[in-house]
Write a structure and sequence with these properties.
TIM Barrel; two-stranded antiparallel sheet; alpha/beta; binds 1,3-dihydroxyacetonephosphate; 13 helices
Length: about 350
């Protein structure tokens, strides 16, 4: 492992004004997104859609530091034969790859999941590196409901995240460590805070045990936020203040950056929260975005599977990327949302 080089990549992933595009939807998830816009999920349509994003020159060069790809995409070529990975590199962004293989039911823990994909991961990482990937992602899922999460679920998922991260660094790939506490329930922000604190503490404990170099990784957490079905939901300032307090208590300063998932927040909420956190300032790590839905919902709708709409899709993507780029510096303003990117 060359830690200086890993650190260089990690720093570039969280460069000021930039963040990560999570375009790594698995086949099942992209089908759901396409169903919502009445587009059939064929290999060509998936390629056309992602090609549209990666050819959004302004968004990709100014606001996107890296793109997380799904296995299918890292091998795909654009319509003119250029590998999609090349399009990303040509825009000055870094290609990354989702390497977990989804979740399975966790035995003995009803309703809870464990992320799988460690078997043969070392060999897969080698091939992904040769294909251009310089960072990877593994997502653990922790749900909040009556009686869960269990210690067991937190432990096994943290252990797997650390195993993955250590294998990535051995393959000279920066691991994005993503322990996602879901916001699907009706819990309040303080319950989310407590659960996330337990999850992050366990995750960093496992990372230490497994000798992962913190300078060569990126953390991708959820924010401290009310559940979607909560009766009253915490406002922007409360989310920002509690998330920063939580992260300061759990995330060592050696971690170069924290890139949040959007997790089902609305586009503007995700931007406003990130912005408010960066306005607090004086943070030991960079705080930016690694959004899937909050970057892509608008371009998906504008595109709707029609070649004629590629320009509109790219404009919608550029707008969201720009708004989040500003938020990563604490320079976003709500009234900018009305003036769409030129
Ligand atoms: P969302 O921003 O849609 O939560 O997706 C980010 C991601 O990569 C989840 O693993």
């Amino acid at each position: 492992m060359n830690l200086a080089d890993l650190n260089k990549v990690a720093q570039a992933m969280v460069a000021p004004g930039k963040g990560i595009l999570a375009a790594d939807e698995s086949s099942g998830t992209i089908k759901k997104r396409f169903d919502a816009i009445n587009v059939e999920s064929t290999e060509d349509n998936r390629r056309d859609y992602r090609e549209m994003l990666f050819r959004s020159k302004e968004a990709m060069t100014k606001y996107i530091s890296g793109v997380i790809l799904y296995d299918e995409t890292i091998w795909q070529k654009a319509k003119d034969g250029t590998p999609l990975v090349k399009l990303i590199e040509q825009a000055g962004a870094i290609p990354g790859i989702k390497v977990d293989e989804g979740t399975q039911a966790l035995p003995g823990c009803p309703g809870e999941l464990v992320t799988v994909g460690l078997d043969k991961l070392a060999e897969r990482l080698k091939k992904y590196y040769e294909q251009g990937a310089r960072f990877a992602k593994w997502r653990a899922v922790i749900d909040i409901a009556d009686g869960i999460p269990s210690m067991t679920a937190i432990h096994v998922n943290a252990h797997a995240l650390a195993r993955y991260a250590a294998l990535c660094q051995a393959a000279q790939i920066v691991p994005i460590v993503e322990p996602e506490v879901l916001m699907d329930g009706d819990h309040d922000i303080d319950r989310c805070y407590d659960v996330t604190q337990r999850v992050l503490n366990k995750t960093f404990q496992e990372l230490r045990v497994q000798r992962v170099a913190l300078e060569g990784m990126i953390l991708k957490p959820n924010m401290a936020i009310s559940g979607k079905k909560a009766k009253t939901r915490a406002g922007v300032e409360e989310v920002a203040e509690k998330t920063v307090r939580l992260l300061k208590s759990c995330v060592p300063a050696a971690v170069p950056g924290i890139a949040f998932l959007s997790g089902g927040q609305s586009d503007e909420e995700a931007t406003a929260h990130l912005d408010a956190m960066n306005r607090i300032g004086n943070l030991p790590w960079k705080l930016t975005f690694s959004y899937g839905r909050a970057l892509q919902a608008a371009p998906q709708k504008a595109w709707s599977g029609k070649a004629d709409n590629v320009g509109a899709g790219q404009q919608a993507f550029t707008h969201r990327a720009q708004m989040n780029g500003l938020a990563s510096k604490g320079e976003w303003k709500a009234d900018l949302e009305k003036k769409k990117a030129a």
